[in-house]
Amino acid sequence: MKSKVYRARDLRSHLELAVHRYPHNTVFWEMYVNSESRSKMFGRVSRQISWALVGEPRSPYLRLLGLYVALASAPEGAYDVVGSALRRATGDAECWSPLVWMACIAFEVRWGSLPRAKRMLLGAMRRCPWVKPLYLAALGGDFTELAGLFGSEEKKAVLRALVFLGLRTRAILAADFRSGESSSASLAESVALYEDQYLLVTNKGITIRRYYFPFLSDRFVPWDQIEYVKTAKDLGVKWYEIKEWGSAWSNIWWNCAWRFFRDPFQDGLGLNGMEHILRHNIVVKVTDCRTLPGSCVRNPDEAMTEINRLMQQHHAHSD
Fold first, then answer.
1. Is 20 within 8 Å of 52 (Cβ atoms)?
2. How far apart are CA 193 and CA 183, in angstroms?
């Protein structure tokens, strides 16, 4: 069986046509880059990536591919060449890829340019405000070297941004931050460890939202007053003991929530099954209180994981 050998020029023309027509196809790009890198034709690859970015300016893959080509074509130790390519990638107003930003920050940290890395981190927060690791980096996350560049007020501002955007922090982060000044400790304790439209869990306690009738005000219960928290299923709650708001044939007072009916704004119209209702509602036993507060919860597994951990932590401290 005879095999036909294609000239490099013919293969290049076919691959260039392929990446031009299908700029999102990573297989074509990988073949093209591998083919050109053998002959060190990185300039041609860079031009193709630049042309592709004109039509797809927010493609994270193309930007990462451009960074790879810049790193591969630069001589060893050429900080200026690589840094220039990284800064061009993040300097583009259409760069919304957190991976590109993290690569640039890591490069500056590696070379000891911490003030520039800090400026890049702040720029990344403005450009990609939904990315939690960027905020954690300022508090001693992936880049521990940067944490020392942020003052107490700046760290408090980062924590406030996390709370405002609904990005929860981990308990260990709150504990580490609590070792600072007392005002920072108060803020760290108020960071949400679990939160939805019905329930808020922090290091201070549980806040049941939409609880009191008729003004939908919240009820806060500190951990030292909570004996246990269980799902309605684990507590053996019956269907006739559940109500959309208030108390039914039991001593449980439920907050205002969609229980028997689905939330039409998030889940569409329909009815919830009894299994779903029992799993997605929790009951809190408060010390010296006959009435048991009950709350709906969107993610029961995640909520109960945090609640059980905090219950063990605070009850161990009380003992």
1. yes
2. 19
